[in-house]
Structure formats: C-alpha cells, structure tokens
Amino acid sequence: MLFDLPTLLAVRVGVDVLIALAFAGLLRRYPTIRGPGWWSLAALVSILGSLGLWMRGSVPDFLSYGIGNVALSTAPLIAWLGLRSHLQFQQPASRVALAALLVLVLQIVFHDVWDLPRARQAVFATVVLAAMALAYRDMVRADAQRRVPEIQALKWLTAVEFAAMVAFAVAAPLGGLPLSQVGPVTVFFYLLAGLLRVVLYGALVTYRLRVDGDRARQGLLIREADSRALIENLSAGVMVFRPNHTLSSINSAARRFFGWSPGGANTALPEPTGPGWRMLREDGQPMRRHDMPFERVLATGQPVKSVVVGVPVGGSGEVRWALFNAYPENNAQGGLRHVVLTFIDITSLKSAQAEQKTLQAQLSQSQKMEALGTLAGGVAHDFNNILAAILGNADLARQDLTRDAPARESLHEISTAARRGRELVRQILAFSRQQPVERTRVDVSAILSETCNLMRAALPPHAQLLHEAHPDTPDMLADATQIGQVLINLGTNAVHALEGRPGRVECQLDGLAGDDPRLPAEVARACAEGGVRALRLRVSDNGCGMTDAVRSRIFEPFFTTRVVGRGTGLGLPVVLGIVQVHGGTIDVASEPGKGTTFTLYFPAAPDGPVRAPVDQAVAHAPADPVTMAPCPPDGTETAPMETPPMADAQPADQPHILYLDDDDTLVFLVRRLLERRGYRVTSFTDQQQAIKAVREQPQAFHLLLTDYNMPGMSGLDVARAALAINPQLPVAVASGYITDELQAEAKVAGVREVVFKTDAVEAFCEVVARLVRTD
Description:
Elements: H1 5-29, H2 36-54, H3 61-86, H4 93-113, H5 117-142, H6 149-175, H7 179-232, E1 237-241, E2 247-250, H8 252-258, H9 293-300, E3 304-313, E4 318-330, E5 336-345, H10 347-400, H11 407-431, E6 440-442, H12 444-456, E7 463-469, E8 476-478, H13 480-497, E9 503-512, H14 521-530, E10 534-541, H15 548-551, H16 571-581, E11 585-591, E12 595-603, H17 614-619, E13 656-660, H18 664-676, E14 680-684, H19 687-696, E15 703-707, H20 715-725, E16 731-735, H21 740-749, E17 753-756, H22 760-774
Parallel strand pairs: 7-9, 13-14, 13-15, 15-16, 16-17
Antiparallel strand pairs: 1-2, 1-5, 3-4, 4-5, 6-8, 9-10, 10-12, 11-12
Helix pairs in contact: 1-2, 1-7, 2-3, 3-4, 3-5, 4-5, 5-6, 6-7, 10-11, 10-18, 11-16, 12-13, 13-16, 19-20
C-alpha cells in the first residue's frame, strides 16, 4: 500500500514533537513574541490525537476514537488561538475549551449510544473546517491591504486545506471509498500542510521580529535625534573626544564658547596641550596637562566633576571661564570609547565675583575711612585742645620775653611742632570728609596754573613740570583750597616717583561731554541728572610706577612706600576724600618702570553766578600739607607773627566775653589771650553755671563763645538755652569736628558762627573782634 497509516502517524508524531520543541524554543528566546506558546501546545495536542489513532485496536475504541478525534479536532482550534495571539487579537480560550468538551461528548454519544462513524467524522470535519474559517477571517482582517506576504501565503494555505477537507469529507461517502483508504491519504496531505504551516508560522515570527526590530531602530533613531536636538540646543557646552585627542562631536554652545564657526565637529582639533587649546587655573596660571579634565579621565577612567577652567579665546587675549565636568563612555567590553566633556559658561559669574571683590575692597576702604573719621572726630576735640594750649601758651610766653631772650628760639620750635600736629589733624579730617567745605564756582584752569607756578619754584633741578588747560574747560563747584591741595599732593607724589632721576610731570585739564563713554558711571550719572558737562584732570609722571599690589593699597590710610619719617601715608587718602566730597572719581593707571597717571573726573558746574576770584583760592592754598607740600627753598620754617596786645581800655568800655569749655587748660589760655587784647572774660567749665550767669545778667555779656563737644550738654544746647534768655546775644560755637549737619543745626539754633577748632588759637580773637563789632 502506498500510504501506510501507522507509519504516517508515527512520522506525524515525530514531526509534531519537533514542532513543539521548535516553538517552545522560540517562546523561550523571544518571550515578547505572541503565538509560539499556543502553537507548541497545538503540536502536543496533535501528538495526543495521532497516538490515539495509532493505538486503535490496542486500546478500547472509546479511548482511541474519543481521545484521538477530540485531540485532532482541538489542535486546529488551539493553533487558531496562537494565530489570534500573534495578530494581537483577543483569544477566546474558554470557548475553545467548551468546544473541545462538546466534541468529546458527541464522540462518546456517537460511539457508545449510537455507533455512527459517519457522525463522528462529520463532527471532526465540522470543527476543523470552523477553525480554518475563523483563521482565514482573522488573517483577512489583520492584513486587509495585503502587505504581508507571510500572512497572504498562510491565508492561501488555509483556503487549500479547507477545500481539501471538504473534498475528503464529501468525496469519500459519495465515491463509496472506505475510511481505510481515505484516512492515510488525508493524514499524509495534512502532514505536508502542517509542515508548510509551521514554516509559515516561523516566517510570521521572523516578520514580527523584523517589524519590532525596525520599530525599535526607528525609536532609537528618534531618541538619538531628540538627544542630539536637546544637546545641540543646551546652553551648556558638550564635547565628545576620542581617546586619541580628536573631537567626535560638539554642540552649538561649545562652539560659541570657543568662538568656532557654526559647522560640525572639527576632527582635526589639536591636542589639549597645543597652542589652540590652553587651559588656565582659577589663579590665571597655565594648567598642567595631567590636571586637565580630559587627561584625568584618560589616566584614571573616573569621572571628574566641578573643575573651574579658564580658556583663552581669539587673538585678543580674552579669557572665558567655565565649570567643567568629564566622564568616560565605555563600550560593551569595558574599553574606553569616548571622553565626554560638559561645561557651563561662568564668565559672567567670574566677572560678578571680580566686581564683588572690587566692591568689597571699596567697602573695606570706606569702612576704614569711616573708622578713621570716627577716630578723627573723637581725637580732634581733645587733641586740638592740647595743640591750642601749646600754641597759645607758647605765644603768651614769647610775648613775655624780650626779643633777644634765648628761650624764644625754643618757643618757636615748640610752636612749629604744634603747627605740624595741627596740620596732621587737618589732613585726617580732610581724608574723613569732616572738614567744612565752602563750594563756589571756580575756574579750575586758573587754580591749576597758579598751583603749578607755586610748585615750580620748589621743584628739584632734575624735574620738569608741564601743565596744559584746554580753553573750553568748564567751571566747577568746588572748594578752591581743597582743589589746590589735591593738585599739590598729586604733583608732589609725582616728583617723588622720579626718585631723583630726570623726568617729567604733566598736568592736563580738559572738558568732556556728559555722555562721553570714558566717564565713570557715577560721574556720568551726575552729569545726566544735572544736564552738565564733566571735567577731566590728569596728573602723570614717567617715574618708577607701581605694582598691582601697591596700587591696590595707595588709598589706605597711613600706607606709604617711603622711608620712615618721610611720609605719613595720608596724602592720597586726603585726595580721595576731597575728590569724593566734590562728587568725583579717581582712575589710576600705573606700570612698574613706566610711570603713573592719576585721572580725576568731576561734574561741571551748571550755569550760574560768576566764579570766585583765583587769587582768593591761591591765597588759601595749604601752606603745609604735611607729606606733600613743597618746602621753602632754604628748608626753614617761618616764625609765627606775634599779635600785639590791644590798647588799654577802661573797664566800663571793655567788651564782656562769656567763654565755656570743659577743658581747664584751654579755659585758662583763652581767658589770658582775650584779656591781653583788652577784653573782660568770664569763663566756666560747667554748662549750667554758664547758663545761670546769663540768666542772672542777660545784658552783661557781649558774646558767648562755647565749645561744642562737652559731656552731658553740647554747645548747641547751651546756645539754645542762652538765646532763650537773651535772643540778641551773639553766640559762636567752636569744634574740631564740623559736619554739614552741625552747621545746619547751628544756623537753626541762632548761632552766629561755627569756628573750626584747629584754628582756635588764631581764630578766637579774630572771631571775637568781628562778632563784638557786629553786636
């Protein structure tokens, strides 16, 4: 016989075993691919059916026909479930189980109740044809556009199987062919069809893997494109280097940072140690190669975090700063593929930090000035009293001696030393801006000319002094005396910077527009608010110059580079205080061996009244600004002029002066000075006693002269109390610590004049005479 049924069933069992194992392997390897599990189960069920038919005659017919027919009927349904699972349709497993149970019941009924072989065959054929029809329908739905060749081939195979099943089911009864002849042919045909179906199922799995792979690659490409777009548009710089120091990729932020063209990665980038790639430490020094982030990753294989690096860019020497991070990117075997550098541009932050340091230095300077000013205010009162007592008593003692007395020379030296101490206090007060300022409209070019003429007479032979004033220079509101002091201090410093070598000192004065970009921000703002121009005063020399360390300290109080005894370190702080009082700023440019230039900027005066005469300004020029003033050619001091005593007057005609001070020494001195000039003096050291004297005799006094700084009750309080008793009484207040607030309060209180106490010895008698005459 051509087809031996047992042999075919044995071959079918072996083929189904291989199919079950193959699909089980696919399920294990690709657990996300649906279908192979069901197909493996269908093969196992088919094995059970083949075994049932194979053992027919060896076991009861109930088992062989029942189990064999049910298993062979159920296997196509399970394969259909696998197809639906693969096509990602819902799997009606419960209905398949009910169908298998129904087939089993019908097989039992048609075998044990009614022995109807044709009925059993009809049930088998009906179930198999239904499974084929359902599979065909699902494949049509899954590939309606007929784009998947594997599904189309499987669909045609199903159609052929369906037709063959119909033919076998119909042809056998009609042709009168026995089952023994039809069965082997049917088994052989479906064995071949099953093998082809398995191949197509495998092709479906391969197709799904290919589709999923393409989808994964597409997703990967999309993610890579998104990542590239994200990295490209990051504000942080990203650079990817190969281990051979060449650049693999770079984003736009990094190209902008380095000033490169907006093109792609530069694979020919020089090594990090090359001339095109220099890195600087935070202190501005070149970074050693093994300290560079890239090299550290290469050497250690470990990430590097938060390294501040400066990178010179362009040919202008500009340095940009960045916070670098670097990490290695390894391949699957652990080898280094790339070194990724990421960095954030912190140039603006570094600039802000530098500006903050500058502001902190300015704040420190301001605090020093404030501290010194507070110290000056406290010292000025007591120190001026001491100096006034020394000068006054020296003057009185000199008047008591004959002109040829040997002691007069000693008294002259005492007065000279005391005057120098007085000038030192004046310098401190000028530095701390506690000296009264009388600002009038002045011609700075005239002050410059007169000051240079004054200095030129005291210049050493090796120094040349030049000055130039632009004719279009505007006037300014200033204290002419203090502007002259600024010029003398700067000029004298410039002469000292020549260090005895031939050199040149130049003073230049001109005007600038209020919106000139060269103006400092503060002066430009003041000019804009006042709608005025600006003045620029430059004092330069070609002397020794200064280092950065010295230049950063030149405005510190008492800082000096001169030898001990040749300077107090107050000259430039005084200049700074005067310039700031006048609303100006100072710019200093200096290099060692190339000289120094001080540039002063002031807002000009608005249109207003006629300027003060220049000779008045020169007349009040400081005679002895301690460390900066030129000395007379012979180096001698001029003896103070002696004021002759006032002519004797009758007691009834003597002006009566009430003097109040908490210092006994000064009270004694002032009383003697005034009495020698013909005044009648009543002095007190207690405020309440002075007020009581005025209350008891309101009209007895022609002038009240009181100190301001006294414990318990100030001189202004005493003035208010005395004026409340006698509003017509002239009152003068003396202080070594005069502020704008004090002058304003004194004016409101009715005080006629505020006397600067450093001039107390000479000024008291003058003020007394003037106020008494006014009265």
